Amino acid sequence: MDAAAPPRGNPTVFKVFVWLFAVASLGGLLGISVITAWFENSDGGIHRVHYMGYGALYGVLLTTGFIVQNWHPERKISAFYQILDVGLAQLLAAVLATSGPAALFGVIVLVAYAVLFALHPYRPMLTKPAREGFSPLLMILTVGGAVPLIGFAVSAARLQRTGLALDPHVKGEHWSLMASMAIGIVLVAFLSCFKFPGWKITARSAGAALFFYGLIAAVYPHKAGSNGTGWSLAAVAGGLVFVAAAEWESRGATSIRTI
Description:
The protein is mainly alpha-helical. The protein has helices at 11-28, 33-36, 48-67, 77-97, 100-119, 123-127, 136-162, 168-171, 174-192, 199-219, 229-250.
């Protein structure tokens, strides 16, 4: 890979906004729920699986995409695109669930992406990114995982769209959240297949998000948001397999290099 051009603009300003958005994602958007979901006791603890949705989407996928930009952002192009994927996932979920709040959060994430895009010290690399190759293995795993995940997203969106307004899950937009999480995992996994710089971070993020969701859903198989023990354990295994496949690919085992 050719050496990156000298940074443009003010990298310090870029980093300030990166940290601002990372803190907002972790705190304001409840990304910290990747940890706190296990202890969430509102309404008798019925929302624990849903709160892991916040943790997976905003904590693992979005906050990671923000934070890693603080160090050599020219090497984290794929992780930067993760931010875009999260915003797009929310907009798609908003359409499926006909949810205004989900659309609003998607727009907020896309605005953050646009601000960082404008401030990015290596912006030309974002519009004409290099690639290390392409991974058929990760694509096969992504397509295989997308079938149940998209099915889950459609079902969750329907529950948000048709549920009673007094239902605490509907009132809290938890079903549109779960749809966003499922779509986000698929989009981020798909992104990692194209091996833009920093693709391993993207692959690990997708696998970790699926793993953490599956883990809490398996522990609480009867809580809203879980698909039962079997599918939840499959999500745990799928997340681990995806990360393992990415690690194997990173050693050049089956990668196809671009010419």
